[in-house]
Amino acid sequence: MTLVISLYICIRGCRTRRILQRWRRSFCYGGRPHWGKLHTLDSERLKDRYLMWDAFRSVRAELDPDRILLSPYIQKLFDA
Predict the structure, then answer these.
(1) Which of 53, 54, 49 has its CA nearest to residue 24?
(2) Staple partner for 80: which of 23, 43, 50, 65, CB 3.0–4.6 Å?
């Protein structure tokens, strides 16, 4: 079963962090965020939730050896 929760948040809004902390509760039940979207999980926690995490990182590195498709946020997740 899949449940998708989508929310548009203005980054300048002061409530962003509060909303993300509330969403974090769903991760205790095996929930997993879209890794490319703003969330509170680090690389190790994402690896636990995505079974092919290391394989994906390898393929991504092979297809983008110059790392031009990495944003600073995504680079932080993949390089950890």
Answers:
(1) 49
(2) 43
Residue 46 located in a structural domain: yes
In a domain, 47, yes or no: yes
CA–CA distance, 19 with 7 (Å, rounded to integer): 10
Q: Say how many CA atoms lie within 13 Å of 15 toward its Cβ.
A: 7
Interval 45-64 mean pLDDT: 89
Q: What pLDDT shows up at residue 65?
A: 93
Range(s) of the domain holding residue 40: 16-79
Q: How many domains does the chain have?
A: 1
When pLDDT is averaged across residues 26-49 and rounded to a whole number, the result is 75
Domain assignment present for residue 68? The answer is: yes
Backbone dihedral region for residue 30 (phi beyond 0: left; psi -120 to 50: alpha; all else: beta): left
Report percent pLDDT > 90 for the chain: 18
